């Protein structure tokens, strides 16, 4: 579905490289996570897929087509894109936000209305209740759900997600991660997800590409990376979820179950 061959990106004429000589393939229906710290090249790699950033060298193909030969606007309209800032149009209703790309593609109004209703229901925001609301009337999690619906509106085969849940509170983030997993099962869409959170990558991805210094340090399934990190950089990422798991076990071991009901002297009603 997605192929990157010897792809590089320099912003200063070749003096330094944000991304250097990446070779990568993403299968149809796969969720691949690009994982790394700030400045590792993961977001640049993502943006080169829909030509928001043009590669300095190399070839990118999506569904067999060399993206260099595709009009950038046409390419972006055919690829779903969800990012951390959500980016809803503040002056448009929720329905109008979701309808933006289909309208630009010349869909009929009846098809647009049907698709908007379908997608809002899909992301848990029934059209009857939310279609006419404005973005400022929704919570952060609800706005991100609208962002996902908008990205799916034109029935893309590929969706790009750049730290989509990074700005959400932990409870909402957990809920959105579970919902994304369910959406994948229902739609079979190919997803490339940028994240700095190893736990999120382990939960969501079929494979994880750990990036450092503009290169792919390690590529493998979650179980492969946990069993064999392969480098100190990958090991440092793997240790975070392992330490969290160990902490949960340790805290569980410290719990002391109360013996009976507290008496009035122990804090009951005075």
UniProtKB/TrEMBL annotation:
Pfam families attached to this UniProt entry: ABC_tran
Q: Name one GO biological process term.
A: quaternary ammonium group transport
Taxonomic superkingdom: Bacteria
Q: Which GO terms describe its molecular function?
A: ATP binding; ATP hydrolysis activity
Keywords (alphabetical) are: ATP-binding, Nucleotide-binding, Transport
Positions the record marks as coiled coil are none
The family assignment reads:
Belongs to the ABC transporter superfamily.
PANTHER family with a match to the protein in the record: OSMOPROTECTANT IMPORT ATP-BINDING PROTEIN OSMV
Please report the name of this protein according to its UniProt entry. ABC transporter related protein
Q: Which species expresses this protein natively?
A: Haliangium ochraceum (strain DSM 14365 / JCM 11303 / SMP-2)
What lineage does the source organism belong to?
A: Bacteria, Pseudomonadati, Myxococcota, Polyangia, Haliangiales
């Amino acid at each position: 579905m997605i192929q990157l061959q010897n792809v590089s990106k320099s912003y200063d004429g070749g003096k330094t490289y944000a991304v250097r000589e990446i070779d990568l393939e993403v299968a149809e229906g796969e969720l691949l996570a690009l994982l790394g710290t700030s400045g590792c090249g993961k977001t640049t790699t993502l943006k080169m897929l829909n030509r928001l950033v043009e590669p300095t060298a190399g070839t990118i193909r999506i569904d067999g087509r060399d993206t260099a030969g595709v009009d950038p606007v046409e390419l972006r309209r055919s690829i779903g894109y969800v990012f951390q800032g959500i980016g809803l149009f503040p002056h448009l209703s929720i329905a109008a936000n979701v309808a933006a790309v289909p309208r630009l593609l010349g869909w009929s109004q009846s098809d647009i209305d049907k698709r908007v209703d379908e997608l809002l229901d899909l992301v848990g925001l029934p059209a009857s209740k939310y279609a006419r609301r404005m973005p400022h009337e929704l919570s952060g999690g609800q706005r991100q759900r609208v962002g996902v619906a908008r990205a799916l509106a034109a029935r893309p085969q590929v969706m790009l997600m750049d730290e989509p849940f990074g700005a959400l509170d932990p409870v909402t983030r957990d809920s959105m991660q579970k919902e994304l997993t369910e959406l994948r099962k229902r739609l079979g869409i190919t997803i490339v997800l940028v994240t700095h959170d190893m736990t999120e990558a382990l939960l969501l991805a079929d494979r994880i590409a750990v990036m450092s210094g503009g290169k792919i340090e390690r590529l493998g399934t979650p179980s492969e990376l946990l069993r064999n990190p392969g480098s100190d950089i990958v090991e440092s990422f793997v240790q975070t979820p392992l330490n969290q798991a160990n902490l949960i076990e340790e805290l569980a071991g410290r719990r002391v179950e109360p013996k009976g009901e507290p008496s009035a002297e122990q804090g009951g009603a005075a």
